[in-house]
Amino acid sequence: MTARVLEIELTQELADRDVAGYAEALLLLRFNRRPIGCVRVASAAGTLRAKDVQAAIETDEALQKRLREVRLKSWLMQHEAPRNPVPLTWSVVICTRNRTADLRRCLDSLRAITTPKGEIIVVDNAPSDDATAQLAAQYPVRYLREDRVGLNWARSHGARAAAGDIVIFTDDDVVVDQGWVEAMLEPFSHPRVAAVTGLTLPLELETAAQELFEMYGGFGRGFRRREFDYTVIPPAAAGMVGAGANMALRRQLINSMRLFDAELDCGTVARTGGDAYAFYQLLVEGYQIVYTPDALTWHRHRRDYASLRRTLAGYSVGGFAFLMRCWLHHGDWQAIAVAGSWFRHDHLRQLAQTLLQRPRALPLDLVLAQIVACPIGLWAYFASRKRERTNGSSSMPAMETSGGGA
């Protein structure tokens, strides 16, 4: 069942909404623009009725608790002396490859960003033509070309070229919220914070595959701010702190620690895991990572079923490749425990729910694709390492052209 994705501002009066063609709606609820929760509400003859939305809000106990908290915080902030934020410069880096339609939508959303002292960088990774370069020339961005295939090569290139204190990464298939950059920068006022991740919600739920991705868990990490360090989670569990499509890191640490391992993530045999390994290294060194739902982005999930299956399998391949890297390179035995826990509590639990035909269980082929991919991930790390060490230095040099500032 597909759903219309909408936003509701709770400081304004609720009104009926036209959702013709949809049986229900997924609603992001905001209070003074701050995201506080999501609810699903069925439509009535193509109309999303205000009374049904109100009922859904009132019967959601967790949502009501968050609403009380945010109202109290909003009241307290009105009576606090204004704080002088730490002046930070920023660079948004978008890594892309042959997806100009998605990239255009992403760049259009970034036009609404008004946070000063920043820039936008597009890193074109091993393009097959000049379409991305032509598109970037239409926007106030810096265009970089990275001919070594791999997302982490592109990330590293963007970070080296960035002028900002904080480098904020997103993907070309993402739309950013107007307050995204400001929300990303706020936690960095504490010097121990090395990275920040944000909330990512579905841009659309138009196909069964997109709905299934949300059933799998999507990119959401909830609506409560969380602070992670090695006393909260083992570093090998770094994948739970957030996703690379919505993350910010201190530029100095990216470059000095070489956080983006070219043997992991898109464009390698390992397929994913590069963001988790960056977070892992920061946690090992004693830094803190903050997850803030105020830093909101919207992700366009893959629309077809075959792409969904490849995506979920890729997460398993990359996740286990990442854990293999932690074990072999760092001697981190907790990586073995995390791998076992992930396989047992995630994949085997999903399999049990599917076999028992529980509500909202994933189809069997999606579950099996993830399970089969786990041992492949162990092999994939070695294969990726061998390929990168053989070919990594033989690629063409990177090139840059510049447009206007953002």
Query: What is the helix fraction of residues, given as a range?
Result: 40-55%
Question: For this structure, what is the CATH class of the largest domain?
Answer: Alpha Beta
* Multimerization state: single chain
Quick check: average pLDDT?
94
- The SSE string, one letter per element, is EEEEEHHEHEHEHEEHEHEEHHEHHHE
Largest sheet: 10 strands, mixed
**Distinct helical segment count:** 12
Distance between the termini: 40 Å
Uncertain ranges: 393-406
Count of distinct strands: 15
Number of domains: 2
Q: Specify the CATH homologous superfamily of the largest domain.
A: Spore Coat Polysaccharide Biosynthesis Protein SpsA, Chain A
What's the helix and strand layout?
Elements: E1 3-9, E2 17-18, E3 24-31, E4 34-42, E5 47-48, H1 50-58, H2 61-78, E6 90-96, H3 100-110, E7 118-125, H4 131-136, E8 142-146, H5 151-161, E9 166-171, E10 174-176, H6 180-185, E11 193-202, H7 208-216, E12 226-228, E13 246-250, H8 251-257, H9 274-284, E14 288-299, H10 305-330, H11 334-355, H12 364-391, E15 399-402
Parallel strand pairs: 1-3, 6-7, 6-9, 7-8, 11-14
Antiparallel strand pairs: 2-5, 3-4, 8-15, 9-13, 10-14, 11-13, 12-14
Helix pairs in contact: 7-10, 9-10, 10-11, 10-12, 11-12
